[in-house]
UniProtKB/TrEMBL annotation:
Source species of the chain: Actinoallomurus acaciae
Reactions catalysed according to its record: (4aS,6R)-4a-hydroxy-L-erythro-5,6,7,8-tetrahydrobiopterin = (6R)-L-erythro-6,7-dihydrobiopterin + H2O
Pfam families: Pterin_4a
SUPFAM superfamilies given in the database record: PCD-like
Annotated family: Belongs to the pterin-4-alpha-carbinolamine dehydratase family.
Enzyme type, top EC level: lyase
Entry-linked NCBIfam families: PRK00823.1-2
Organism ancestry: Bacteria, Bacillati, Actinomycetota, Actinomycetes, Streptosporangiales
Protein name listed in UniProt: Putative pterin-4-alpha-carbinolamine dehydratase
Amino acid sequence: MQQLRAADIERELASTPGWELVEDSIVRTVKFQDFKAAMAYVNRVAEVAEELNHHPDIEIRWNIVVLTQTTHAAGGLTEHDFRLARRLNAL
């Protein structure tokens, strides 16, 4: 897994709506009607993450879910991060 260059990150980010670059990660915040809906979403995220064997950091604040994605082993963003982000956008 190779870390992406800045130009590659910008290109990938342009085709991954809803995510923003924060330091060496991409982050998406999703707001739901209530805690139950947020938790249902988190469970769907977990299923996709397990399928791809690539896992985001997940922060839950009642009805708000914050997903943070990076490849720790590569020391930054890789193709896998954007592949997962696009799959999560489809949820």
